What we know:
This protein is an alpha/beta fold. 35% of the residues lie in helices and 23% in strands. β10 (368-371) and β11 form a beta hairpin. InterPro entries: DUF306_Meta_HslJ, HAD-like_sf, HAD_sf, HslJ-like_sf.
Amino acid sequence: MKNRFMTLLVLHLILVAGVAGSSSTVASDPLPSWNAGPAKRAIFEFVVQVSSEGSPTFVPPSQRIAVFDGDGTLWCEAPVPFQAAFVIDEIKRRAVREPALAVDPMVQAALDGEIGKLLDGKHHNGLLRILALTHTGLTTDEFDRCVNRWADSASHPRFKRPYLELTYQPMQELLGYLRSHQFECFIVSSGEADFTRVWVERIFGIPPQNVVGSIGQVKYALREGKPVLIKTPDHLLVDDEEGKPVGIHQFIGRRPIACFGNSDGDQAMLEYTTIGNPLNSFGLIVHHTDAEREYAYDESTPASGKLTTALEMASTRGWTVVDIKRDWSEVWSNHESLQAAEESRRLFGRWLAEDIGRRGVLDRAQSTLEIGPDGSVSGSTSVNRYRGQAIIDGNAISFGPLIATRRAGPPAMMDQESRFTEAFSQVTGFRMGENGLLYLTDGNGNDILRFSKIAD
């Protein structure tokens, strides 16, 4: 059993090394923006170890929990974290028509650009103060609209790009790679959960329920006969440093086996994940070393993200340290890659065939397709069950050979089965309709299969 696993591991690493060095097959590398080296190799080795049946360190999918810090790990945190930029912009907007706000010393600090005052204290107390002043009394829906308005209009002072474009392409790829191996990924951030939940699903594919962050108290009320939740100035949990393992326990309920951070604020989460864990575990620290493409800091930071003790402990604890300048061939996600990733994610799930080759389908015979994040496909032809593999690259998709059972059925259903399976061999692309339908197309762009989503 152990020899079989080692063979799988060696073959996997040879394959990855081969595709990483070949421009014609680079799309096969799940981490193309990671340069070859110890960090990339460590990621591959860990994932193979925990996801290969027969491995002595195999972990069942239900226990493959990965947690990611947000600021500085998944997206830029300099010169200030995204939420600090949002709050400062919001206070400037409101101070024009609400001059009484400027009486508060923390508001004045924000207006004067004294960011250090806002981020002082164990839990960035000045920032929390401004959040309370500006958002107490808003419903959660009103707050969501406020964040979206900012995200659609604000841009980074140095890079002159929307903040939501300043996410790290290598970490986007890492999230996709983990999900393709049945990891459930969570963001565990010191930022306010309400703020982060507004936009992370469309940027990272992480749903709101998988965001653990600092939690503010809300209260229930009826407004104009409709139920609403109203934000208050009180905090239930500040999700930073020792608060992160607490938040993981309270909101996830499982100990992670993989943890990704970038600062001393993530050290407790890294320790909780990797020290004494009965399951094989992995810790990774993103070290900001590239002043030209991004920022370079560790002990002395632009605003947050100090990295000293966690970095010192990395070798002792066996944590992988990523040097951005050395290990990442690209830093920023581009808009097209984000759109393509979002489009691909919409493929995943269960689909019901509504039309095959423009000849319709039988009402009583259901032909289905299920696509997983790892490209696995399965379903029913209407008579038989099948499974196989798809290759997805942007809006291109192709299906490998399908393995099916061999039961016989009525002639009309067997005819539909034949048309259904034959259509897969012609598929080269896909598009999502505005009506939520999935269209699989041939090389000329013709629709040859149309599906509707099956509700989970």
